[in-house]
Amino acid sequence: MKLTVIGCGYLGATHAACMAELGHDVLGMDSDRDKVQLLSSGRAPFFEPGLDDLLAQHTASGRLRFTASYAEAAQFGELHFIGVGTPQQAGGSSYDLSHLFSAVRHLATHLRRPAVVAVKSTVPVGTAPRAAEILREFAPAGEQIQVAWNPEFLRESCAIEDTLRPDRLVLGFDSEQSWGEAVLRQCFAEIIAAGTPTIVTDWATAELAKASANSFLATKISFINAVAEVCESAGADVHQLAEILGHDVRIGRSGMRPGLGFGGGCLPKDLRGFMARAGELGVDQAFAFLREVDAINQRRRERVVTLAREQLGGDLAGRRITVWGAAFKPDTDDIRDSPALAVAQRLHELGATVTVTDPKALDSARKVRPELDYVDDPVAAVEGADLLLHLTEWPEFGRVDPEQLARRVAGATVIDGRGTLDVDAWRSAGWAVRVLGRA
Ligand SMILES: NC(=O)C1=CN([C@@H]2O[C@H](COP(=O)(O)OP(=O)(O)OC[C@H]3O[C@@H](n4cnc5c(N)ncnc54)[C@H](O)[C@@H]3O)[C@@H](O)[C@H]2O)C=CC1
Ligand SMILES: O=C(O)[C@H]1O[C@H](OP(=O)(O)OP(=O)(O)OC[C@H]2O[C@@H](n3ccc(=O)[nH]c3=O)[C@H](O)[C@@H]2O)[C@H](O)[C@@H](O)[C@@H]1O
Question: What is this enzyme's class at the first EC digit (predicted)?
Fold first, then answer.
């Protein structure tokens, strides 16, 4: 079928490429002309494993195109996905919905035939009726437009796999919108036929499914990091503890990796957005504990800064610190609310000379933190360093020979903020190793 994807960032570009992979004719639309140009040439404006190949393949076949024109998008097909950004409001904790409402309005003014508008962007509960109102007001096709809420659960770094083989599909509709359901079922036919649980629900439940999923994932990570705080005081090893807990199928291993905590464009802002909306709805107390989830997460960053100061005798002025990692997690170049970069920035503010290295995220990091030094090669990056911090667990870092590194540094001390370095190998190579979450 013919469909559009409006907003071609991390979510939208992946969704567009995957919809083409499913055999649909896809037109991606983005207001950023540079992005449109790059995507049209078959390249992603960011790093996501496998995405360049998929884009190249489907732009070459003609099944996937990109445009900056709403008029073109509106005329293209009967199904329009919207995946524009819904960032945290500047200076607030709720969502900035201006991109979403602007996209809906612009699309609406050009819609001249019946269509389904399926929103994938993450929003506070109660947004769908507002989007539907805008469509009713501005779309010449008016009543023949159906609004679907289709939250997205993909993870960056495995976004293609998560899109093509999701754990579940959620389709939210207002009452009596059976036509919209049929269109979406046709779009996802291959995924549904593969046995993917498909839950059809109302708008509010679909909106809340996303907010609560991300809040739960954040809670799980902060739970194990709260345990890490206890382990550090009690002389226990949180990494072994996480493994022990993970064998219990009711607990599981995923989301139980202790360390520097969560970052990224979504978990932190969705947690805060969920709390803010709960407050607006008068159920603030029910979610009071989520505030602690956020606080535990922030404390992990402070803890690394404290450990770094301790290792360097308290004063960071003039000391050289190398940070391995800028991305918020491995296999992405996304630095939004990156724990690694936040720690690097704090150490810089405290007077240290900070050199950052990352396999993919240096260009993005340079743009937002130009005051830090950047070096491509993780070995060259430690030259003359008094302290090394391992803050994003790229496999590349695990493969560096610690003996070779030890010869280049001024002080062979490493703080492992993710608990993935081979401690025995590093100690044998002469390094003093401190692992976050271990006494
Ligand atoms: N990044 C992820 O892994 C996931 C993101 N989400 C949600 O998806 C939404 C998008 O997130 P990302 O893709 O990460 O953001 P992003 O910032 O990478 O992409 C947003 C895109 O929308 C475009 N845009 C903004 N306003 C527009 C407009 N009025 N018309 C057309 N295009 C417009 C921007 O130019 C940009 O390319 C957010 O609500 C996010 O919470 C949901 C699941 C996963
Ligand atoms: O709404 C979104 O954008 C997405 O947010 C997360 O996906 P993502 O942010 O790509 O990454 P995750 O793999 O969930 O990791 C998030 C952060 O938590 C950290 N993390 C993750 C797992 C863990 O056990 N411990 C841990 O510290 C990671 O290092 C990273 O900083 C969710 O996992 C997705 O389901 C959701 O669609």
Answer: oxidoreductase
Nearest CA to ligand 1 atom 15: 85
Q: How far apart are CA 369 and CA 366, in angstroms?
A: 5
Task: Quote the ligand 2 centre to 24 CA distance (angstroms).
Answer: 29
Closest Cα to atom 2, ligand 1: which residue?
A: 11
Tell me if 363 sits within 8 A of 341, measured CB to CB: no
By annotation, the residues acting in catalysis are 266
Q: Name 142's bridge partners.
A: none
412 Cα–ligand 1 center, Å: 42
Question: pLDDT of 196-244, one tens digit each?
Answer: 999 999 999 999 999 999 999 999 999 999 999 999 999 999 999 999 9
Q: Which residues line ligand 1 (CB under 6 A)?
A: 6-12, 30-32, 35, 83-86, 99, 102-103, 121-122, 152, 154, 156, 265-266
pLDDT digits 0-9 by tens, 239-286: 999 999 999 999 999 999 999 999 999 999 999 999 999 989 988 776
Cα 217 from Cα 359, distance rounded (Å): 26
Can you tell me the distance from the alpha carbon of 437 to that of 243, in angstroms, rounded to the nearest whole number? 13
Phi and psi dihedrals of 313, rounded to 5? 75, 20
Which of 5, 27, 30, when mutated, tests ligand 1's pocket best, judged by the most ligand atoms within 8 Å of its CB? 30
Q: What share of the chain is helix, strand, coil (3-state, %, to 5)?
A: 45, 15, 40
- Which domains does the chain possess? 2-196 (3.40.50.720), 211-297 (1.10.1040.10), 298-435 (3.40.50.720)
User: Atom 14 in ligand 1: which residue has the minimum CA distance?
Assistant: 10
Reported as a single tens digit per residue, the pLDDT across 334-363 is: 999 999 999 999 999 999 999 999 999 999
> Which of 128, 121, 110, 129 has its CA nearest to residue 82?
121
Q: How far is the CA of 262 from the centre of ligand 2 (A)?
A: 7
Task: Enter the ipTM.
Answer: 0.99
Q: What predicted TM-score, i.e. pTM, was given to this entire model?
A: 0.96
pLDDT of residue 287: 72
**Cα→Cα distances 355→33, 105, 296, 345, 349, Å:** 33, 45, 27, 10, 13
